[in-house]
Amino acid sequence: MAWPGGRNVRDLGGRALRDGGVTRSGLVFRSAAPEHLTDAGWAAARATGIRTVVDLRNAPTETGRTADHPVIRADSLDGLVFVAAPTEDPDDAEFLRVCGPWLDHPRSWADNARLAPARVAGAVRAVAAARPAVLVHCAGGRDRTGMICAMLLVLAGATADAVVDDYADGWRGAGAYEGHGWVYDLQRQTWDRRHLPAAEPAELDRQVAERVPAVREWIRTFDTEAFLRSAGLSGPELDTLRALLRPLSGS
Question: Boundaries of each Tyrosine specific protein phosphatases domain copy (predicted)?
Fold first, then answer.
């Protein structure tokens, strides 16, 4: 997507469905932290249809503008609704013990949902309640965003390959930029902010290849709809999510 300043921006549309056709475009987008967008970038996002921004990051540690971000006009955000929907509790000892070593890996997805069901389901609920189009993002737009977008694609009936491809594109898109990220040190039990250099294409290919089996295992063993029901999503909310990315009847 051509949003000036935007990082790792893509549309969930165009992914193959199990019963034929592809997911609908223009309704759900994913990205890295949108603080990188310039005024022109926000204008482009709004022109694309963005009305709601669902932020999966942990506040206040990961959120807010810094000197690395462009200065924007206040009116660049007019009409947008921002929803805080963190998917994890960075202070939960059991979450850190189980998921801490795997925060940049889909091996953590099922445990994240098990240990923080209200948070993960709350993020999906935020998409169901959002006025489209909606932008879903975390910091890099690959791990937490990848998990939530995988759930949305599964609910839409996307093929396993489509879910994998979306995850892989998000990983490569994040790795194309240098930046900073928070890494949990299990031995010292502390969060460390580390510089993350941009990765070479060959290294990104290696990282993706190492993670794809875990995505396929999650698709095979994790029942997204049953999880969301058990976490409190209603039938109408699930109906909304199933229909969100489906092609319009007759299209």
Answer: 118-165
Q: What's the pTM?
A: 0.93
**Cα 24 to Cα 28: distance, rounded to the nearest angstrom:** 9
Nearest to 106 by CA among 213, 224, 33: 213
Q: Contact, 126 vs 157, CB < 8 A?
A: no
Which residue, among 65, 115, 116, has the nearest Cα to 86 in the 3D structure? 116
Burial class (CB in 10 A: 0-12, 13-18, 19+), 67: exposed
Residue 107 has pLDDT above 70, yes or no: yes
Query: Tens digits of per-residue pLDDT, 188-203?
Result: 766 666 667 888 999 9
Instruction: Say which CATH number the domain at 23 has.
Output: 3.90.190.10
pLDDT digits (tens, 9 = 90+) for 135-166: 999 999 999 999 999 999 999 999 999 999 99
User: Residue 250: pLDDT band by 50, 70, 90 thresholds?
Assistant: low
The total domain count for the chain is: 1
Would residue 166 count as lying in a domain? yes
- Residue 218, domain member (yes or no): yes
The answer for residues whose C-beta is within 8 angstroms of residue 173's C-beta and 6 or more apart is 7, 8, 9, 10, 32, 141, 142
Within a domain: residue 188?
A: yes
Band (pLDDT 50/70/90 cuts) for residue 170 is very high
The tokens for 101 are 């070593």
Look at the block and give the residue holding tokens 């993670």: 211
Range of the domain at 179: 10-244
Q: Assess if residue 5 is contained within a domain.
A: no
Q: CB–CB of 167/20 below 8 Å?
A: no
